[in-house]
Amino acid sequence: MAKKLFDYQLDEPVEGFFLLKDSEVRIAKNGKKFLAINFQDISGEISGKFWDASDQDVENFQAGRIIHLKGKRETYQGNPQIKIQQMRLTHAGEPQEVQQFVEHAPLNTQTMEDEVNQFVFAITEPNWNRIVRHLLTKFHADFFSYPAAKKNHHAFAGGLAYHTLSILKLAKSVADEYPHVNRPLLYAGAILHDMGKTIEMSGPVSTTYTLAGNLVGHIVLIDEQIVEACQQLKIDEQSESVLILRHMILAHHGLLEYGSPVRPHIMEAEILHDLDELDASIQMMQTSIGHAEPGTYTERIFAMDGRNFYRPTHDQTKGDLDGHASQD
Amino acid sequence: MAKKLFDYQLDEPVEGFFLLKDSEVRIAKNGKKFLAINFQDISGEISGKFWDASDQDVENFQAGRIIHLKGKRETYQGNPQIKIQQMRLTHAGEPQEVQQFVEHAPLNTQTMEDEVNQFVFAITEPNWNRIVRHLLTKFHADFFSYPAAKKNHHAFAGGLAYHTLSILKLAKSVADEYPHVNRPLLYAGAILHDMGKTIEMSGPVSTTYTLAGNLVGHIVLIDEQIVEACQQLKIDEQSESVLILRHMILAHHGLLEYGSPVRPHIMEAEILHDLDELDASIQMMQTSIGHAEPGTYTERIFAMDGRNFYRPTHDQTKGDLDGHASQD
Amino acid sequence: MAKKLFDYQLDEPVEGFFLLKDSEVRIAKNGKKFLAINFQDISGEISGKFWDASDQDVENFQAGRIIHLKGKRETYQGNPQIKIQQMRLTHAGEPQEVQQFVEHAPLNTQTMEDEVNQFVFAITEPNWNRIVRHLLTKFHADFFSYPAAKKNHHAFAGGLAYHTLSILKLAKSVADEYPHVNRPLLYAGAILHDMGKTIEMSGPVSTTYTLAGNLVGHIVLIDEQIVEACQQLKIDEQSESVLILRHMILAHHGLLEYGSPVRPHIMEAEILHDLDELDASIQMMQTSIGHAEPGTYTERIFAMDGRNFYRPTHDQTKGDLDGHASQD
Amino acid sequence: MAKKLFDYQLDEPVEGFFLLKDSEVRIAKNGKKFLAINFQDISGEISGKFWDASDQDVENFQAGRIIHLKGKRETYQGNPQIKIQQMRLTHAGEPQEVQQFVEHAPLNTQTMEDEVNQFVFAITEPNWNRIVRHLLTKFHADFFSYPAAKKNHHAFAGGLAYHTLSILKLAKSVADEYPHVNRPLLYAGAILHDMGKTIEMSGPVSTTYTLAGNLVGHIVLIDEQIVEACQQLKIDEQSESVLILRHMILAHHGLLEYGSPVRPHIMEAEILHDLDELDASIQMMQTSIGHAEPGTYTERIFAMDGRNFYRPTHDQTKGDLDGHASQD
Amino acid sequence: MAKKLFDYQLDEPVEGFFLLKDSEVRIAKNGKKFLAINFQDISGEISGKFWDASDQDVENFQAGRIIHLKGKRETYQGNPQIKIQQMRLTHAGEPQEVQQFVEHAPLNTQTMEDEVNQFVFAITEPNWNRIVRHLLTKFHADFFSYPAAKKNHHAFAGGLAYHTLSILKLAKSVADEYPHVNRPLLYAGAILHDMGKTIEMSGPVSTTYTLAGNLVGHIVLIDEQIVEACQQLKIDEQSESVLILRHMILAHHGLLEYGSPVRPHIMEAEILHDLDELDASIQMMQTSIGHAEPGTYTERIFAMDGRNFYRPTHDQTKGDLDGHASQD
Amino acid sequence: MAKKLFDYQLDEPVEGFFLLKDSEVRIAKNGKKFLAINFQDISGEISGKFWDASDQDVENFQAGRIIHLKGKRETYQGNPQIKIQQMRLTHAGEPQEVQQFVEHAPLNTQTMEDEVNQFVFAITEPNWNRIVRHLLTKFHADFFSYPAAKKNHHAFAGGLAYHTLSILKLAKSVADEYPHVNRPLLYAGAILHDMGKTIEMSGPVSTTYTLAGNLVGHIVLIDEQIVEACQQLKIDEQSESVLILRHMILAHHGLLEYGSPVRPHIMEAEILHDLDELDASIQMMQTSIGHAEPGTYTERIFAMDGRNFYRPTHDQTKGDLDGHASQD
């Protein structure tokens, strides 16, 4: 099988098919145009510059196109980059499907959907069960295809559902260990907590924030959906069970300064917040460690206070670590 | 006219009718019951202790009753208190109406309603106008009778509408001075910004927070009402004008750590936040200064970082300052 | 079975045997002595005052004694208290064993030891395994009898081992879900992380901090024990595996301001920190919720930023919630 | 009338007269000199680079010169810039006056002076009135020509007086609405609050901070002037009225961390601080929004915590918004 | 020699002459008056309550009187207190001089004056020398009799000069060790840095803050004096040497949030700030440790972040430590 | 004597021998290699770029080589840089010793050793004396050759011992002035406080952090050495005197957020922290001021909150200020 972008060592020649994730026209100091490109395949992204771009080049090499590249893996200011030697569009018979180059969740959609449904079955409180089913149906396609964030953790297609599922599995362990935890409430909150991101973000590819995302935010956007669901399902939106469910979502960022309008005042809301952070942290650390050699440090992770992490020399699991696509 | 509670000087004999705002039964160190009382009239509240309370006294002197008091104005740990000498329930022909003893807004309800309506006329954007009218109608009674807060600023009957009206007047001045300000947006946001407090709080008297208030909060509670109003008025809730109006309310606490789920990203939302704080500050300072003698400092105001304020010796306006009831 | 302290409702007569957890002689305002007492049984602690104490009373009713009490369950400034009517020392044939009145871990020592040992088997890295066994043996008695803290979470006999075991179970769930987690490292770190508390604190009863605890702290105290263990076991203390294990312990408070001299820079150290906080939070919330009635709020939990938590009305599990002694 | 800098659209050819606000000689990577220029007219500033500058070019194109430019409006890393095609000095008969190109207050000096004087009349306290007149006379020329700041808000000629006047108008509204506000005190404080900037800064053009500005700061610099004024006017500088006036100036930054040596402890000092911030914020937002297209976000405003602001699509007032020069 | 207040052990009978530092009339729960007293001698202060005070007692036992006391040294809520058994005014022939009971600087005024003068000689820069002499003369009496603060460090008569002198001695050591330090500047700044406290505070006894102290603050108050001194001494107040000297004083609190309007931007200003804090800290620690037994902790020191300090068991210097009066 | 790097003025031709401190190969925008170089001599470091580097150039001009340079002193974005005109390796007979170009402590090793020993003599407590001697012997070579930090203060060969010695001298002054300070404890703590840096850092040249440095940190690393020393010297490591000494080291960063696992709770630990900061600050200010012209500001000092410092015009000591090499 063809080498992936992150399989190439420093100074090694690179040859293969890649997706142009970004391709921006800029003016060089000599007055000529060049393209600032991010090459992508399922192992991640690396940047490169295409110098002295003709108008035809600008036309050909737009973001979203798949190209064939010859070049070299170099380093620029500590970050990997590709020195481009030759680049052309693909021919018939060569790879044409963007999906093959985009990182996506390590589980396929059907598997994730089946697993989420198992958790829905366990939501035995009828109001919560109906609201969750209603909104899962309403946002079905986006929920299973969106990333969980523009960058940072789970920033890949299907990342939202995958992140939700990871939290649900942690939630199950917690509910098994601490029997006083309200299992249906924790599951219902976990499934809905980030669903507002399907309204906050523009889509799974070239993700930007919508105006509603910027002015209202995903927390309030999904809260409003719960209220609407109650109206359509004839559930009293002022009932304690609905208020508690809404609180799960509203409080899940844990601190006001992280954007929750209220802090957790229900035990399960506090637990949901903790598990959300735990899964996001592990996901970010695993991704970064997968890109570092044993015995070295990862790059600094912005969303973890800029810390870098040491990959011990005895840790030989790299092949697995970046294998989000391993089961494809 | 009878002297008010705050008219009595230190060590002066007190005699008059007062409302028992709070009256709590406690056990003294000698094992006997006593009542910890807050006496109230429109000039404010002062505490006192009724020692050796019999079961009949406990029965008689409950919160909400109006009593006749003989006593002395003393000081306990720097705060004024009343030493109770004699206390009895009122007779027929003596004051019986709680309203006479409760601090309330310096404007009567009809006046406030008329003035608010003048501002509604100036909301020329049709969606905003319809939403504001709809919610003003829906919450009419509570909006004009609730306090703006449990304590701190405008913690009196009618305080919510009075605070709203003060902001509207400041908003008018700002819109007159800075012509690029969107006047209809600023007015609509000002009228709605704290209306959720009618859901967050239990009522104008003996105010507590409701479960919805604690778990959801007044910001999101009124946001949800805007969304419902759109549905009933057939206004597209995803339209830019609605998103902007919702942003006005969601962002009006200014900072995430003050409970807004988003910071202001619309000029008028920033202005609304500033005017909200300005009016609350002036109201708190005026109340405290009204209780201090010229040439002395007020007590520390908790909600203004615990600062106290100096009342200059040349400031002889005390009579006016605490006269919320002046037009009665 | 006899009623427990927290089974009595407000104003209900109280009669039974209790431990005097604290009993402090003070001078009342009338110049006479009184005893400020904390009564304890396995359901928790409630305070009371014994007025007009004679010298014989002071002699009799010292902390650590078991007494028979007649009184009434009252409330003082929002907290439960006991009004003492009659109090005497126990006679022969009445309860004499302090252990019966002291809250302790819901698992007995042998069970906890067996379960911890299962996790030790899974520490397949030989250095870590030997160090953990060495220190578990060295601190065996204290590790299984100490509380995890003076107050806040797991402040009961056996709390240290119970807290450790809860984290180990969470750690197992995490290692099962995220296969790149180094399971032996996470288990070894979890077992050792708070073991220094056996040096930091004076003992399981009437716990105070030792001088070493105050001047050095439990994090560095156990780090020093790891270094000593290496010397005795002829393990190179500068080897990467030892440095990583030490880092697990040194970094487990997560932030410098919480007393860790380094922040986590190993993935498993970050996870250990997160699970430590998660278990402590759940334990504190469960305890407080167990003391609140359904449909009311708990008291504020100091170690969780002073937040209180709402116990939903549909939560009828109180009997279980405070039943740490349920299996005895 | 000729197009202004901010009237040109992306990729539109630019031709016209502009001021060289900055022109810095740098060395390009090819070893040749180039000029890093900021072009200015009354609509604002845009940067550009003059490549391969000869010694004659360096000599000609110095900061402060007016030039004729042919070029193109481009974008560089999200900010507008001018690609220079041809540039020459102006000839006789072409614009020569720097004042025509410099942004300045939207009111002319005489108007501002007249309006300020109206407020001085209303300062009925004799000490304050005499001090204000004395210092207005002493710093007259600078007060009406200086900017209010080096950058951020009101960073244009006459900005100091214009900012002062805006605050005075807001102050009038507040004093009208809240009758207990001491109007003369608020006006006197507003006029003097930033007058120290005439000592702190070097002048209206190419503004830098003076040594006194850096080592003492404008707050203390004007406080010292009040003290000197008292000595010359034979006013007792220890009188309460002088202490209160000084407090207005010393406290006007509101928080110690913003450089006030005392926090506001007089109601009018708190109000002055609030109005100062309100006017500065509105001014910054208006300027940024005037440079953004409807339906887009402004650049981030550093002095407002780096927030950007959304200009609604229905806001068609751009022409007015950047028209500081509109009445000229 | 008679025992001092802090020489008495817990439960030891107390008999001797003491000053009534404070004596406040309060009403007990039984309705009778009592006096809340602070007894003082040169070893410190301890509180006590005088129950059932008659009008004659209130008249006799006012603050400032010297009394003869019989009582017992007890503890109340962890703090030492005196149980009063008998108390009477002093007779002829018994101690009458308040000075004997007031803590004061361990050096007498003449010694401090001589030592300060030695440092003045070393201020070789003529402007600084003249300004320092001028202000030392102007504030001579107060400078050598005032405390350095109302509470916290050096809160005793002569404390201001003593604190200044301690800093000067540290400054000499620093200037000896780091030859690039400007010695005259450091000395001049040290002498003047807190001199404004003679204006900020009401006097050496029963110290309160003046209005000027509250509204302007000691930093700006002495800065103003430097400016006035320049005018009287015909020194150019805008000269660099004067600006630098003023900066020394203005910046000496180190951080804006501690009340300096500017942070140190001159090396000697930074050093002055550091030495000011160092001397204050050592003084506070020495005082507290002097009141603690070897092998115990001090009370928490509010101005040092509430930390307490351990007095090692081998530290047998207590007699010396609290001996501010040792030379009397 | 030859001019030093910092002796050259702007635009002055540079010619002389320098050390290549760093030399990094990078790719220019034209695709050719260049070297990003830091030139060093004992006056400091200045950067420069060597364009169009051949493979032979890359081979020749590696970090650690001494070269002969012809060029010009220029400025790039406000920082000094060297424009390289000609560069060659040194010939026989020209300077070859790296030591001549490296900044080092102003005292030679023998002098520092003698002076430190004088302080060791004054450590009269036998345990402390033996521990200090033991560790001084063990880490002798590194202690006298390492820098005190990678950058910031004392970042030169011998800086660790020089910094230690400066603190010891300040400590002597403090102990002389405040007789209750425990002199032996303060000296012992000062000598050991940063000795862990010899384990934390890789060495005196091209300093990096070791794995132990990153995962454990210098504070805990030297604490562990004290414990080991106790074991070898048969000193009871749980004795109060050892706990106190360890506390001196553990607490010397003063605040938890600066990496101390405990805050100072011993007077001498607080003093050690203060003197450590004082010496580091003065050292940083002196170095920066030595690089600035009189009448100008230094560059911003990162470790002093980014402040810059003004070098007064009357300060003519520059020659001395940067003369770390003055006694060579």
From TrEMBL, chains A, B, C, D, E, F:
What Pfam family does this protein match (any one)? HD
Keywords assigned: Exonuclease, Hydrolase, Nuclease
Give the SUPFAM superfamilies listed for this entry: HD-domain/PDEase-like (SSF109604)
Please name the GO terms of the biological process aspect recorded for this protein, alphabetically: rRNA 3'-end processing
Q: Which branch of life, at top level?
A: Bacteria
The residues the entry assigns to the signal sequence are none
Q: Which residues form the HD domain?
A: 160-281
Provide the GO MF annotations for this entry: exonuclease activity; nucleic acid binding
Q: Which PANTHER family match?
A: 3'-5' EXORIBONUCLEASE YHAM (PTHR37294)
Q: What is this protein called?
A: HD domain-containing protein
